[in-house]
Structure formats: structure tokens, C-alpha cells
Amino acid sequence: MVDVVLLSGSPRKNSNTMEVLDVCAKEIEKNGLSTEIIPLRGMTIQSCVACNKCVEKGNCVLKDGLDEIIEKIRKADGFIPASPVYFGTARGDIMSALQRIGKVSRGTDDFLSGMVGGPIAVARRGGHTLTLQEMSMFFPINDMIMVGSRYWNMVFAHAEGTTNEDEEGIEMVKLFGENVAKLIQKIKS
Ligand SMILES: Cc1cc2nc3c(=O)[nH]c(=O)nc-3n(C[C@H](O)[C@H](O)[C@H](O)COP(=O)(O)O)c2cc1C
Predict the structure, then answer these.
(1) Of 38, 51, 105, 116, whose Cβ has the fewest other Cβ atoms within 10 Å?
(2) pLDDT tens, 49-101?
């Protein structure tokens, strides 16, 4: 069991999104909680097919591996999805994952209720805010607690390994990670 699950929507090997999640996870760990970063790389995440079988079975019945990720999120206190921006919006697979995670939570034991987190977006030049808005819709509808920072959780990067060039973006992600960890600890104390 881990305290905070971080989910990357990037398909790339040396992914900027993974790099940003690594920074965020390190900050959460510095503040006393355990983390696991799960990449969707190599997976093909289907959209929800509205079969409603999760209600009866307790998890998603689609066989693409998301059910195992859902089991990890079910046991966690925090959840942070992150996506590269594709044509101004989040990559499709992460939105498919979020919709199915939400559907399973609401159809079973409401495991997302009270969970702490927030989204992160990574892009070369533009589309971060709409991507964050898209992913943000997931939190309040699932009775979750979305955490702030001093700016939105967005990082500018294009070529592999360039996230550090956006110093302000990285500082904001660090503060966000720290805030997530501190809030979880306050809630649990
Ligand atoms: C299909 C596609 C669409 C993209 N669309 C945008 C975009 O709308 N705005 C932008 O700034 N960058 C865009 N990018 C660039 C990526 O968001 C950027 O390279 C990001 O760092 C990739 O993150 P990753 O390494 O984690 O996959 C696009 C990249 C791809 C492959």
C-alpha cells in the first residue's frame, strides 16, 4: 500500500511528465509519505463502455490493466494524475483512465471520497490551463479534495529532460507536493 499514487499519461520513454511527477513524489516523500508513480506508457486504456459491471464485480472488467491501478488508488490517501498536452487538451488515455477510475469508485465503495490531490499538465508552449481544467473536473464530482499551490500545476518542456529549465513551474510542483502531503497528514492526525 502507498500513501499517494501519481499517474502519468505520457507514452514517451524519457517523459517530461514522468520527470515532473518524480519531482512531486520526492517532495511528498520528504514530507513523510510513501508514493508510487505509475506510467500509462505501453498500455492502451479503453474508454468506459458503461457496462456497469463494476457495481457487481467491485472493479472494472475491461482487460487492459487499469483494474490493477485502481486497486492501488483504492488503498491510497492521495491521487495525482498528470498529462502532456496534446492539441490543447489532455492525452486521451489519461482521460479514459480518470473516467473509469471515477465510475468504479462511484459504483463500488466510493474510495475516492475524501482523497487528496490535483492534476498536473506539461507542454511545450500552450494548452496547459484547458488541460488542467479538463482533469480538474474529476476531483469535485468524486467528493475529493483538490490542493493548491501558488500558481497552476503546469510545466513548460518539449525536448526530453528539459523540465528543469522551467524553474518556476518546478517550484510550484514542489509546493503542490508538499501541500498534498501536509494536508493528508493533518486529515489523518
Ligand atoms: C500529438 C501531440 C500534440 C501536442 N500538442 C501540444 C500542444 O497543443 N501544445 C503544446 O504546447 N505542446 C504540445 N505537444 C508537445 C508535448 O506536450 C510536450 O512535448 C510535452 O513535454 C510531452 O510530454 P511527455 O514527454 O511527458 O510526453 C504535443 C505533442 C504531441 C506528440
Answers:
(1) 51
(2) 999 999 999 999 999 999 999 999 999 999 999 999 999 999 999 999 999 99
What does the mean pLDDT of the chain come to? 98
Q: Provide the 3-class DSSP secondary structure of residue 69.
A: helix
Q: Give bridge partners of residue 79 from the DSSP assignment.
A: 5, 117
Tell me if 157 CB under 6 Å of ligand 1.
yes
Threshold 0.90, pTM exceeds:
yes
**Of 38, 22, 26, 114, nearest in space to 70 by CA:** 38
Domain 4-184 maps to which CATH number in 3.10.20.600, 3.40.50.360, 3.30.420.10, 3.30.70.1230?
3.40.50.360
Distance, CA 126 to ligand 1 centroid (Å)?
A: 9
